[in-house]
Task: structure prediction
Amino acid sequence: MVDLHVIKKGGRDPEPYNEGKLHASIHAACLAVRTPEGAAGVTAKTVCQHMLAWLNTKQEITTTDLLTKAGAYLSAHNPDAAVLYLSNLRV
Result:
């Protein structure tokens, strides 16, 4: 993957894509809807793998793009966690 940058809401300075942050946010959303720890970890890992494939050809994305695509992948594995995760789009 090329050096990928995420453009933050409000146009603040782009920051490098951080898979760890994505994994942690997906994992937290799963735990928040009472998904068992092991299943939350597997789901977060799976979503991150899907995201890597999607991000492979991109150099820059917005936070909204990142949340939307990750939420779509999450929805296929844990719909309740996806609803919570995607609620960040409305902020």
The mean pLDDT is 92. The two ends are 30 Å apart (CA to CA).
